[in-house]
């Protein structure tokens, strides 16, 4: 009771603010366009404690960015058009603010005071939210810790919790960036170079806030590829690169980086059997690498929440240019997760949120399904991503109102943020929001037949709900049971009666918020891994399968998914002894 009492007392306190600083800042802005220029660099409408000054500041900002006059008459007219002139006190209030301004030259100082008090108010709001979450006695304490750290980090960055931005502001930013690109002759200024010429040309570099998945079968060199990229990024950036290695120790990572930088056989570095000239190369390479800001975290038990927290701290303290995780299938999301498919969805979604939150590219390495080994052409496809799959065009998706529509039609209509029937981890049928439908390429399908004459056409690795948890279609056997939903919304159980391969066709998946699952042909199916990724790349080396390959020393980097650009293949040189990828010389 004492705690509750103290909370109610705190709630009666007036939030920190300065009426004098707010009045003086807006008054200075009414008197000088230079003051407006200084103010908009530090504060926005939401930083004002007084609602009336939020409106006046907004009117000033609108006129200023449009290049229009910002005198009292113009501001009054703008407020009148917005229907709030009387609400702020009329033209008399504007004249009063002008007259009471102590010094126009102090506008930046007034703005800083307003900003500081705004930060204090947001800190109080964040602390209140954190306290409410903690008082609720959550089952997953680590998730609350992550929430608390994220909220405090948002305040430290000066972010508002309101993220919606009006289109005119978005267009203003887009035009500014376009002008910057034009001035640079078309060179990307807000992307991170991969260090590979042809790959940069294809991707336009690594874009901020993008999640990039790099997949390969064992022995293809996916770790070497990612480390080659990370080393190049660190060489060309003032901000650090952060590497999370769940498979290899930091010493092993260091040895690989040394081998590539020094052009010395990695086996010799591991064994210590070096000649004098190789020691010289290693010494010089170590000196160069030491100048690069590369941070290595080799905690093998790290979770996606740990990665987000540690990345957040490094960004706040040192800056950040790239995050790399090796590799996805070794990660966990949280304790007591319902199934591996749910866990993988949480991981991929968490990494995408990390990329967006910190505004940096995130590269996650991934293993591929061994199914590709049975194909004649062993070049990877999207369907080869482990714990990822898709459905046929005519798969009937159960919508929130109980009706059914083919997943391909939903995609063709471009529907976003619509309701589908879904299921909680406990098995309760609920309505969930589907963010969008995605086409994921042409893939081979299998038809799973059930006792009630229903069937499901899916890729071999698409996760389907069973009484024992989600299982990939390829793991189902005749007689196994699959969970589903009847026409009236009640749960049913199918029994698998047949498994027949089909041809290849364009396939689709749905990104469902929260539950990550939906009903297709009355069967409960799960989201795919690649949905959250902006770019999916695969590594293929023909010499790994054919000793007489004419492409020895050449690696194909297959861009299988590129949300905002072209797909295709880039060829790089691979020096296996040096654990190094490099551009192929032109000419």
From TrEMBL:
Keywords: ATP-binding, DNA replication, DNA-binding, Helicase, Hydrolase, Isomerase, Nucleotide-binding, Primosome, Repeat. GO terms for molecular function: helicase activity. The lineage of its organism: Bacteria, Bacillati, Actinomycetota, Acidimicrobiia, Acidimicrobiales. PROSITE patterns: INTEIN_C_TER, INTEIN_N_TER, SF4_HELICASE. It comes from Ferrimicrobium acidiphilum. This is Replicative DNA helicase. Residues 185-389, 528-587 form the SF4 helicase domain. It catalyses: ATP + H2O = ADP + phosphate + H(+). The main replicative DNA helicase, it participates in initiation and elongation during chromosome replication. Travels ahead of the DNA replisome, separating dsDNA into templates for DNA synthesis. A processive ATP-dependent 5'-3' DNA helicase it has DNA-dependent ATPase activity. The intein is an endonuclease. It comes from the Bacteria. The keyword Isomerase applies. InterPro entries: AAA+_ATPase, DNA_heli_DnaB-like_N_sf, DNA_helicase_DnaB, DNA_helicase_DnaB-like_C, DNA_helicase_DnaB-like_N, DNA_helicase_N/primase_C, Hint_dom_N, Hint_dom_sf.
């Amino acid at each position: 009771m004492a705690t509750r009492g103290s909370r109610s007392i705190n709630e009666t306190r007036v939030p920190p603010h300065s009426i004098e600083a707010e009045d003086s800042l807006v008054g200075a802005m009414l008197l000088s366009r230079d003051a407006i220029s200084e103010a908009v660099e530090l504060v926005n409408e939401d930083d004002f404690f007084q609602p009336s000054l939020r409106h006046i500041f907004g009117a000033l900002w609108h006129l200023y960015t449009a290049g229009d006059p910002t005198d009292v008459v113009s501001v009054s007219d703008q407020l009148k058009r917005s229907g709030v002139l009387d609400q702020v006190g009329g033209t008399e209030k504007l004249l009063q603010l002008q007259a009471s301004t102590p010094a126009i030259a102090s506008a930046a100082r007034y703005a800083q005071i307003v900003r500081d008090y705004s930060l204090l108010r947001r800190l109080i709001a964040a602390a209140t939210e954190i306290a409410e979450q903690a008082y609720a006695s959550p089952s997953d304490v680590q998730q609350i810790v992550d929430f608390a750290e994220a909220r405090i980090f948002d305040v430290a960055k000066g972010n508002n919790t309101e993220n919606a931005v009006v289109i005119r502001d978005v267009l203003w930013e887009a035009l500014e960036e376009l002008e910057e690109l034009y001035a640079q002759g078309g060179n990307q200024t807000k992307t991170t170079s991969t260090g590979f010429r042809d790959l940069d040309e294809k991707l336009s570099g690594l874009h901020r806030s993008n999640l990039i998945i790099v997949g390969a079968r064992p022995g293809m060199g996916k770790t070497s590829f990612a480390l080659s990229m990370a080393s190049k990024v660190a060489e060309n950036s003032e901000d650090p690169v952060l590497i999370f290695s769940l498979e290899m120790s930091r010493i092993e990572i260091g040895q690989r980086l040394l081998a590539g930088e020094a052009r010395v056989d990695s086996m010799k570095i591991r064994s210590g059997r070096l000649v004098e000239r190789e020691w010289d190369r290693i010494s010089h390479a170590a000196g160069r690498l030491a100048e690069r800001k590369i941070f290595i975290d080799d905690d093998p038990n790290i979770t996606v929440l740990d990665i987000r927290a540690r990345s957040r701290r490094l960004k706040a303290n040192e800056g950040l240019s790239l995050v790399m995780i090796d590799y996805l299938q070794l990660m966990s999301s949280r304790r007591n997760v319902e199934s591996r498919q749910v866990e993988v969805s949480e991981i991929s979604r968490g990494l995408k949120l990390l990329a967006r939150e910190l505004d940096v590219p995130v590269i996650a390495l991934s293993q591929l399904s061994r199914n590709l080994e049975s194909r004649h052409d062993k070049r990877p496809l999207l369907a080869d991503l482990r714990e990822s799959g898709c459905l046929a065009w005519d798969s009937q998706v159960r919508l929130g109102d109980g009706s059914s529509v083919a997943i391909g039609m939903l995609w063709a209509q471009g529907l976003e943020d619509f309701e589908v029937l879904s299921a909680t981890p406990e098995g309760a049928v609920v309505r969930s929001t589907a963010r969008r439908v995605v086409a994921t390429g042409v893939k081979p399908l299998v038809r799973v037949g059930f006792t009630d004459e229903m069937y499901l056409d899916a890729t071999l690795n698409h996760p389907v709900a069973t009484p024992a948890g989600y299982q990939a279609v390829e793991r189902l056997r005749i007689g196994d049971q699959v969970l589903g939903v009847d026409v009236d919304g009640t749960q049913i159980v199918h029994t698998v009666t047949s498994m027949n391969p089909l041809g290849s066709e364009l396939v689709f998946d749905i990104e469902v918020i929260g539950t990550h699952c939906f009903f297709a042909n009355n069967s409960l199916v799960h989201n795919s891994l690649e949905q959250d990724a902006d770019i999916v790349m695969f590594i293929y080396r023909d010499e790994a399968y054919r000793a007489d390959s004419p492409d020895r020393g050449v690696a194909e980097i297959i861009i299988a998914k590129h949300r905002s650009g072209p797909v295709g293949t880039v060829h790089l040189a691979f020096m296996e002894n040096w654990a190094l990828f490099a551009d192929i010389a032109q000419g």
